Amino acid sequence: MRQLLTIALLIFSNVFMTLAWYGHLKFAEWKWFNKLGLAAVILISWGIALFEYCFQVPANKLGFKGNGGPFSLVELKVLQEVITLLVFTAFTLIVFKNETFRTNHLIGFVFLVLAVYFIFKK
């Protein structure tokens, strides 16, 4: 149960992180948003990132072996990175229609999945 909850929290965290980091690039298409200065855009992104932390911190707390969770610190980090790439890829393909997913991206992701395999291998 803690495994699934940790993964779900990491997914939610990464959705907010991706929106905070890259959403403003899409929001710039809106006239009112485009009139904002850099400081306002940073504050908006920072506000969105707050929700990332609301999911990330509990995910790490629940998932860490030292707190009774199923994952070591290294496993948590690698899991988070793979989830980040999956969420980022989905976000990019759905929100930015002009971006493409190429063969070299797929090959790179396969290597990352192999990294997860080796990290979790006992």
Report on the architecture of this protein.
- By secondary structure, the chain is mainly α.
- The protein has one domain (2-120).
- 80% of the residues lie in helices and 0% in strands.
- It has helices at 2-27, 31-34, 38-63, 73-95, 103-120.
- The longest helix is centred in the N-terminal third of the chain and has 26 residues, at 2-27.
- The radius of gyration is 17 Å and the shape is flat.
- 13% of the residues are buried.
Summarize the structure.
This protein is mainly alpha-helical.
**Uncertain parts:** none
The radius of gyration is: 17 Å
Straight-line N-to-C gap = 21 Å
Largest sheet: none
- As a percent range, the share of helical residues equals over 70%
- Reading the helices and strands in chain order gives HHHHH
Keywords: Membrane, Transmembrane, Transmembrane helix
InterPro entries: DUF486
Protein name: DMT family protein
Organism: Anseongella ginsenosidimutans
Keyphrases for this structure?
single chain; mainly alpha; 122 residues; 5 helices
